[in-house]
Amino acid sequence: MKKRFTEKEKYVAVQLYLTGKYSYREVSEFVGVDRKSVRKWVGLYKSHGIHALSPRSSCTTYDATFKLKVLNYRTENGASYLETAIAFNLSSPYTIQRWEEKWHKGDLDVPVLKKEGRLNMSKKQKKVTENQLEAIQKELERLRMENAYLKKLNALVQSKEKSPNKTKHK
Question: Which residues does UniProt call coiled coil (predicted)?
Answer without folding.
Answer: 119-153
